[in-house]
């Protein structure tokens, strides 16, 4: 049996991996010349969809990947990110199956399995959601979050979008802005501890 600390570390590593996967994919779609680092694509999605008058839809997909990935990569909102990731992965899975892409459905199946591990850990949160209120099994208590912590996290997220705009004039400054944003968001946990 894993200790609670080991289990939390394992889940955070899964969240960071999934977060980087989707955050990087979204950022690469919107960064100048697709220069943001990530390991899944396609980075050319927005340009391809523009040919059919769907460029705005492609940007929406990229922004959704950035938001969902950021919720996970910073681990502050990994439950919310994991819930939002289910339809994202399933939609991508349906597209890859429809286009008969070889191998990609298996990769997405693996990512979905990892995401389900996070959701399984937070299963005690679902009874009140399903029952639209209190239920016999209340969620376990977790670290208290503060509004100041939420605001600090939001500043870090905003810097990600600023970095996209900067990438068209200075790629290194854009990377630096993105990394500073992630660090600021991670500091939101310290802000919570200070303000409790």
Could you explain how this protein is built, in words?
The protein has helices at residues 4-30, 45-50, 55-73, 78-98, 104-121, 126-130, 147-166, 171-186, 188-194. The model has no long low-confidence stretch (mean pLDDT 90). It starts with a helix and ends with a helix. The chain is globular and about 55 Å long. It folds into two domains: 4-136; 143-196. The protein has 196 residues and is mainly alpha-helical.
Concise summary:
With 196 residues, the protein is mostly helical. The protein has helices spanning 4-30, 45-50, 55-73, 78-98, 104-121, 126-130, 147-166, 171-186, 188-194.
Largest sheet: none
Low-confidence stretches: none
Annotation, overall tally of beta strands: 0
* Approximate shape: globular
Intertermini distance: 32 Å
Helix content: over 70%
Radius of gyration: 18 Å
Strand percentage: under 5%
Tally of separate domains: 2
State the order of secondary-structure elements, H for helix, E for strand: HHHHHHHHH
Structural class by helix and strand composition: mainly alpha
Protein name: DoxX protein
Keywords: Membrane, Transmembrane, Transmembrane helix
Transmembrane segments: 12-32, 52-72, 79-99, 105-126, 147-166, 172-189
